[in-house]
Amino acid sequence: MATKVKRNKALERNRDPLLKGKVLLGVIVSLLFLIPIIWMLFVSIKPDNFSTSNPVEWFLPPYTITNYIDIVMDSLILRWLFNSFFVAFITTILTLIITSFAAFAISQMKFRFKNFIFIFFLLGLMIPGEATIIPLYEIVKSMGLIDSYTGLILPMIASPLGVIILKSFFDGIPKEVIESATIDGCSYFRLYYKIVLPLAKPALAAIGIFTFIGSWNNFLWPYLSILSETLYTLPVGLPVFNSTYSQAYVLPMTANAIASIPVIIAFLIFEKQIVKGISFTGIKG
């Protein structure tokens, strides 16, 4: 029976007169995204100071991996890579904890001014991050957190969008489940930890993915708050490195390849989760 259903679905797909055109368009779009990555990888394995007026020669021998060894040994790129991962990971964990607590309180607990607080979170979406940079910098400076991991992480863990998404998800949990758990003597924390969080895994995964990506790609705040090169993240460290090779192609491209390879591997591993996260936020938003 299952085999017949699969065959019927396959036949329905084959009946689509635009199927071949859609496949061809998908291949073309994929190549448009892949070609810059492939070109970057080929340029990164060319000899240092290699130059040519013919773009085809970038893809032809000679090849070498000496560039990778030199950059890893003579620069701080691995340190910057660690900083980016550490800051993004801690920011994601703290953001998930804080946003889930706040969303649970607004959704399931009864207290005064709850609706006003939720409106306050909605208003937070209307204020661009750049508008808060100066007061944020003054606050962090007054706390003595400039040029530190703490100063990098703490200002980034506030996520009004995460609270709104999780609150809407928590509102959709059947009231019967919440009421039965409460009647059985379940405390608010146990209700949050044992019932609500397991049901909210898709929402948490979506928020976690986009928080991590946003922190990994964040440039403005690390650029303003970090003074020591050893604390640079990749978005700050790479332009500094590339500025010393303004007339060269190979070494800057090798540095960008080293920074991109972990992201590409992570995407290939978590591709399904990323797609689900995008689709989830599209449906719930």
TrEMBL record:
Primary subcellular site in the record, as a coarse category: membrane
Protein name as annotated: Sugar ABC transporter permease
Chain segments annotated as transmembrane: 21-42, 80-104, 116-137, 149-170, 191-213, 249-270
PANTHER family linked: ABC TRANSPORTER PERMEASE PROTEIN MG189-RELATED, ABC TRANSPORTER PERMEASE PROTEIN MG189-RELATED-RELATED
Alphabetically ordered keywords of this record: Cell membrane, Membrane, Transmembrane, Transmembrane helix, Transport
Sequence ranges assigned to domain ABC transmembrane type-1 in this UniProt record: 81-270
Subcellular location as annotated: Cell membrane
Classification of source organism: Bacteria, Bacillati, Bacillota, Bacilli, Bacillales
UniProt-listed Pfam families: BPD_transp_1
Membrane disposition: Multi-pass membrane protein
